[in-house]
């Protein structure tokens, strides 16, 4: 018998927020929310290296935030569902409204 228990909703939520806890990953998710993107488009958008972009994509996929599909020789990434776009947009709006004073 397996003694492992399923993670709680709080643990799953914390994992989601850890995956969102990177400015580059937020930038990538905002772009992918507009349209499916391939790795080289995300490299151009972020200015990050291809290995770094790929590493961030892996984190987002492991958190079930992205889905990938092969188009020719490239992988194209899309949001797993529209909840992610709403979470990111709400977080960005909240942050913009509550900027700390300089």
Automatic annotation (TrEMBL):
This is ArsR/SmtB family transcription factor. It comes from the Bacteria. SUPFAM superfamilies: Winged helix' DNA-binding domain. It holds the Pfam family HTH_5. Residues 5-99 form the HTH arsR-type domain. Keywords: DNA-binding, Transcription, Transcription regulation. The keyword Membrane does not apply. Gene3D superfamilies: Winged helix-like DNA-binding domain superfamily/Winged helix DNA-binding domain. It comes from Luteococcus peritonei. Transmembrane segments: none annotated.
